[in-house]
Design a protein that fits this description.
about 290 residues, mainly alpha, about 10% strand, disordered C terminus
Length: about 290
């Protein structure tokens, strides 16, 4: 014999939630059960709120035509160049009125309108004064009279002519400068209008997506409302499940089979054999045999 023996045992055990926690857990499960019917629908207040969202979504379509009109106007420049013809016409008129003087390089004072009358009046006054003086002295028409008259006329007329010449130059330069400045101003105005035109077009491009969003606002709001109508019950059910399912898993039951092997030494085996032989001998001694 090899002295080996084998034993097989079957064990079964059951575990339950803590005994003292049973009333609390039962109360929780009872309350969860009262909420379970609500997971199949929504409350009246929730239904009213969703209905209001859907009504507002239907009303948002009223603004779509205005948004589309604004978008179309911006894409067309928003009327930024509407005043450009008037601006250009005003500059053209200014140029037409200013160009003769701005382009005139004839500074001859004698060709200045009105200068002849002014000189004639001055000449008459000087002549009358000089000749009167010589006439009073009895030397009217003498050589000295003519010399004095010429000197007086030169002294009186020269400043007027010189001043008029300088004034003619200044008037021409001022007109030319004003015409140049007006050209720059006109160009700046037109450029600003053109830039605004381009900016409006860019805003129009951006407004296209806003217009699409506005057009889709109603359907999107309706979809969101319906998602809430479906999601609220499902969310409630999820909350109940998160509480109830872990509680349901607190108890457990287990069973299993255990198998063991025992190996005896030679002395243990001899003892068992000897004990068995002795049990056979003793009955014979008891009978006196």
């Amino acid at each position: 014999m090899d002295g080996t023996s084998q034993q097989t045992q079957t064990q079964q055990s059951t575990t339950q939630p803590w005994q003292q926690a049973q009333p609390l857990l039962g109360g929780i499960l009872s309350q969860l059960g009262s909420y379970l019917p609500q997971t199949g629908g929504i409350t009246g207040a929730q239904s009213n709120a969703i209905g209001a969202i859907e009504n507002n979504a239907d009303g948002s379509a009223a603004f779509t035509p205005q948004i589309n009109n604004v978008t179309s106007s911006l894409l067309a420049g928003g009327g930024a160049l509407r005043q450009a013809p008037q601006v250009q016409a005003a500059y053209n008129q200014y140029g037409a009125n200013t160009s003769p003087l701005a382009n005139n390089t004839n500074y001859n004072p004698m060709q200045t309108p009105g200068i002849g009358d002014q000189l004639q009046a001055l000449r008459d006054n000087i002549t009358q004064s000089v000749n009167g003086s010589f006439a009073a002295a009895g030397r009217d028409g003498s050589g000295y009279n003519q010399k004095a008259l010429a000197s007086g006329l030169a002294a009186g007329l020269a400043p007027v002519l010189t001043n008029q010449y300088n004034q003619n130059v200044q008037n021409q330069q001022t007109a030319a400068g004003n015409l140049y400045n007006a050209g720059n101003t006109n160009a700046g105005i037109l450029s600003g209008l053109q830039q605004q035109y381009i900016a409006n077009q860019g805003a129009g491009v951006g407004s296209v997506s806003a217009g699409l969003d506005a057009s889709n606002a109603g359907p999107m709001a309706a979809l969101q409302a319906e998602a809430q109508r479906l999601g609220i019950p499902l969310n409630n059910l999820g909350l109940i499940s998160n509480i109830g399912i872990p509680i349901a898993g607190l108890g457990s039951q287990s069973s299993g089979t255990a198998t063991g092997t025992n190996t005896m030494s030679g002395a243990q085996q001899f003892g068992m054999i000897a004990g068995g032989a002795n049990s056979l001998v003793n009955p014979l001694a008891f009978l006196g045999l």
